[in-house]
Every structure is written in C-alpha cells, then in structure tokens.
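Subject: design request, 135 residues
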C-alpha cells in the first residue's frame, strides 16, 4: 500500500513535469495583479541599459526587424497579440521577460537571459512592458 502511493506520487510528479514542459503556448501567461502602472519613457531608457547587473535588452534585441540574438522588436505589439494566443499582450510580455522559456518565438532558441524576474523590480518590469507595447 505504502510503496503503491509512492509510485503514484512519482507518476504525478512526472506527469506535471511533462505538462509544464509542453506549456510552450502563450495562452497560459499570467501577470501579477499588483504590478504598478508602467511608464513607457522610463521603459525606453531601461531597455538600452544594463539593469541591476543584468544584461541590457538592447544587447540582444534591435528595434527594427534585424536579428541580433533575439527577434527584432519592430511591430512588437502586433506580434505579441499573435504570440499571446488568447492571453493579454501585457501578460504575454510579462511572462516573456520573467520566464522567457515559457514561449519560444519560432526560429529562436531558449537563450534569453532568464534572471530578469529576480533582478528587475516590479516597477522596472512594468515600465519595460509599457514601452514594448508602444513598438
Ligand atoms: C541574451 C540575449 C537576450 C537578452 C539579454 C534579452 N533577450 Fe529577449 N529574447 C531573446 C531571444 C533569443 C528571444 C526569442 C526566444 C524566446 O522566445 O525566448 C527573446 C524573446 C523576447 C520576447 C518575445 C518576443 C516576441 O516577439 O514574442 C520579448 C518580449 C523579449 N525577449 C523582451 C526582452 C526584454 C524586455 C529584455 C531586457 C529586459 C530582453 N528581452 C533581453 C534574447 C534576449
């Protein structure tokens, strides 16, 4: 009885790992409800700076359609709508910054810097989201 419940527990863990690994759709993107209002002009400045020791967004993203390491962000707001696949563009953008592996833009690898969720303040993330959605 006891070993049986351990087996089912392991099966459950394995199943949830598989499910989360398959979650490469923007449809389940979520954003904290208490994120402060973002300021796009502060976001524009942050975009091209190294923030709290993290690499700058501009180091990997151009503002036109040319690829540096990541996709060029020209027409980002329109592209985000497609990639969000039913989630809001704000939630999709939030997830793209704090958990970049959740949705991988087609043609790219999962190589975006993954520690922004720890190194940026909620205000800085909100400012970046506001800025990106003006593009
Ligand atoms: C080390 C390079 C690198 C850095 C630094 C980086 N990114 Fe990215 N980013 C990528 C790559 C590669 C992708 C495409 C793969 C993916 O979807 O994760 C991407 C994808 C994205 C997307 C999704 C684009 C779309 O069209 O759906 C957003 C939004 C984004 N990055 C924002 C940012 C912001 C904001 C910063 C700075 C806080 C940043 N990135 C820093 C490499 C980077």
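Subject: RE: design request

Done. Sequence follows.
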């Amino acid at each position: 009885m006891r070993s049986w419940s351990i087996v089912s527990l392991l099966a459950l863990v394995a199943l949830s790992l598989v499910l989360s690994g398959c979650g490469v759709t923007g449809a389940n993107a979520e954003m904290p409800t208490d994120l402060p209002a973002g300021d796009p002009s502060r976001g524009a400045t942050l975009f091209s700076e190294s923030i709290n020791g993290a690499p700058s967004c501009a180091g990997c993203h151009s503002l036109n359609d040319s690829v540096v390491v990541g996709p060029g962000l020209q027409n980002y707001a329109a592209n985000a709508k497609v990639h969000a696949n039913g989630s809001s563009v704000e939630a999709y953008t939030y997830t793209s910054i704090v958990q970049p592996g959740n949705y991988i833009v087609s043609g790219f690898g999962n190589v975006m810097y993954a520690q922004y969720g720890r190194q940026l303040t909620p205000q800085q993330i909100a400012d970046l989201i506001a800025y990106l959605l003006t593009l």
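Confidence is low (pLDDT under 50) at residues 13-24.
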